[in-house]
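Lecture notes, continued. The same structure-token format from the folding unit now serves as the input rather than the output. Read the line below as a description of shape only.
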């Protein structure tokens, strides 16, 4: 009952003015009011007030929401849309059995399952089973072909040391949050992060940590997300750190919320380095390439730390920079797995922009976005974290 009242009270703040409509990717794609923020809020009110049943159609409109928060950013009434969409998903999880795909995703993001899953996926890739599954049509038959395309070539899981000392007189110690996917999918970015931070004079700790809980929070599993947050507080706040840094903006947005009442600042790696460059001299060697910058929604609308990427890459001589005009790629955490058709439709304009620039490299500060864009580009153009260019250029 408390959850229903909470949703109803937050929903009442929406005056249905429609200022959110131009920024909503799903509404712009469909022009369907139920696919807009104010439309979804109206659906939420209907659900908690007993005027609407949790039909598959109603749940689909709610599940289509990407959580990009472009609406929250522009809302004149300051509606807490992120809290609303997370709360209604929690409510639906408690009220109705999950679809098979959602159950599968919820199962796969468990840390114990991931530790066993990645070696199996590597075996799938290198044993020839992947080629057989694609040629035989088995993936299409099981409805997993689009999800399987997101999988890049996997390397053995990266093993990191708990501590990396500064390469010069130490300016302090920072903690690096790797995320549950980082040591598998962001190996180059993590190694580049450690290289840059230690060369700039920082000791780097890799504390014990668990999943940030973002996927769980935004899928309606709030209790699991809270458990992860409590565990991470114990690990991450146990040291005397200048800052807790992250590479993936999706993880960072979740961490910043769960650790917001503590003394240690939680900030993006690029923002921390940009702040360092204001106080200390940092020189960069030229990179004669063309780069397209994708600014993830979590970095832009939640963390509001997009300037650092542009500023730092702009300091690299000869690097030609283009910023994508439509920031939402459609990945949205699990949406690229559970809502693949919608995610691919939203991604398409970005792919066209990238192809028109004849870019050598695409950079994105969120691992989910990078995987989604990389799959859309069929791995023909590398999609990397911006810290990899900084590490390559740093003198």
């Amino acid at each position: 009952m408390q959850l229903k009242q909470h949703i109803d009270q937050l929903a009442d703040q929406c005056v249905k003015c429609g200022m959110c409509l131009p920024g909503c990717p799903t509404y712009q794609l469909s022009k369907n009011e139920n696919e807009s923020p104010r439309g979804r809020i109206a659906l939420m009110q209907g659900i908690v007030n007993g005027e609407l049943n949790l039909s598959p159609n109603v749940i689909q409109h709610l599940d289509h929401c990407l959580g990009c928060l472009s609406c929250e950013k522009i809302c004149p009434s300051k509606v807490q849309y992120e809290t609303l969409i997370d709360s209604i998903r929690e409510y639906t999880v408690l009220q109705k059995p999950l679809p098979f795909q959602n159950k599968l995703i919820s199962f796969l993001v468990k840390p114990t399952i991931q530790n066993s899953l990645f070696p199996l996926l590597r075996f799938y890739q290198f044993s020839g089973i992947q080629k057989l599954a694609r040629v035989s049509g088995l993936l299409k038959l099981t409805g997993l072909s689009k999800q399987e395309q997101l999988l890049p070539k996997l390397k053995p899981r990266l093993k990191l040391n708990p501590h990396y000392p500064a390469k010069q007189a130490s300016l302090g110690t920072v903690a690096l949050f790797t995320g549950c996917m980082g040591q598998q999918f962001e190996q180059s970015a993590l190694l580049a992060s450690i290289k840059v931070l230690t060369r700039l004079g920082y000791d780097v700790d890799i504390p014990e940590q668990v999943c940030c809980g973002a996927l769980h929070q935004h899928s309606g599993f709030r209790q699991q997300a809270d458990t992860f947050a409590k565990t991470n507080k114990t690990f991450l706040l146990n040291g005397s750190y200048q800052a807790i840094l992250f590479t993936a903006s999706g993880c960072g947005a979740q961490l910043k919320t769960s650790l917001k009442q503590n003394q240690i600042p939680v900030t993006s790696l690029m923002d921390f380095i940009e702040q360092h460059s204001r106080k200390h001299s940092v020189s960069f060697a030229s990179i004669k390439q063309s780069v397209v910058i994708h600014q993830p929604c979590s970095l832009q609308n939640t963390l509001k730390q997009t300037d650092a990427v542009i500023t730092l890459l702009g300091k690299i001589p000869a690097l030609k920079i283009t910023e994508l005009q439509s920031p939402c790629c459609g990945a949205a955490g699990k949406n690229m797995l559970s809502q693949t058709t919608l995610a691919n439709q939203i991604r398409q304009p970005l792919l066209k922009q990238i192809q028109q620039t004849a870019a050598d490299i695409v950079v994105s500060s969120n691992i989910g976005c990078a995987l989604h864009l990389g799959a859309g580009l069929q791995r023909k153009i590398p999609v990397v974290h911006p810290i990899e260019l900084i590490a390559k250029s740093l003198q």
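Point for the exam: The CA atoms of residues 307 and 342 lie 29 Å apart.
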